[in-house]
């Protein structure tokens, strides 16, 4: 037996008619420089400076560091370290702050063009 066609169009099961995996996306960039590999504060030598890019720490720890001046975009200079190399002093926003190696490893930086003071 043949079904009678009605004038109504069948409703799609999914309300999103476009499928996400089939969309074409294009990103343009006017930046011709290739980004440097991600570095951390641990990678800085004494007197080297870098710009803080991001903090990969849990919320409360990141908030405390930001209160101390470790804000994205801030210039950080590596200073002295304890005899074993841990903790290490970093200068940021006019203050000197000692960080343990495990914490300093979570702060991602971009090397500054003026690396040495």
Describe this structure in words.
The protein has 117 residues and is mainly β. It has a domain at 37-116: SH3 type barrels, CATH 2.30.30.90. Helices cover 11% and strands 32% of the residues. Strands 1-6-2-3-4-5 form a 6-stranded antiparallel sheet. The protein is rod-shaped. The protein starts with 38 loop residues before the first strand and ends with a strand. The mean pLDDT is 78.
Key structural traits:
117 residues, mainly beta, SH3 type barrels, 6-stranded antiparallel sheet, 2 helices, rod-shaped
Question: Summarize this, please?
Answer:
The protein is mainly β and 117 residues long.
CATH architecture of the domain at 37-116: Roll
Major sheet summary line: 6 strands, antiparallel
Q: Numbering strands along the chain, what is their spatial order in the largest sheet?
A: 1-6-2-3-4-5
**Named CATH topology of the domain at 37-116:** SH3 type barrels
Query: What structural category do the secondary elements indicate?
Result: mainly beta
Percent of residues in β-strands: 25-35%
* CA-atom Rg in angstroms: 26 Å
> N- to C-terminal separation?
88 Å
Oligomer: single chain
- Provide mean pLDDT, rounded: 78
Helicity range: 10-25%
Strand elements, count: 6
């Amino acid at each position: 037996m043949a079904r009678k066609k009605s004038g109504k169009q069948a409703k799609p099961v999914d309300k999103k008619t476009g499928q996400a995996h089939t969309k074409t996306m294009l990103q343009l960039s006017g930046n011709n420089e290739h980004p440097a590999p991600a570095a951390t504060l641990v990678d800085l030598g004494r007197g080297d400076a870098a710009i803080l890019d991001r903090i990969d720490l849990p919320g409360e720890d990141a908030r405390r560091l930001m209160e101390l001046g470790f804000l994205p975009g801030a210039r950080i200079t590596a200073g002295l370290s304890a005899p074993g190399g841990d903790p290490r002093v970093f200068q940021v926003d006019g203050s000197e702050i000692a960080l343990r190696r495990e914490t300093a490893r979570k702060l991602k930086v971009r090397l500054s063009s003026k690396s040495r003071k």
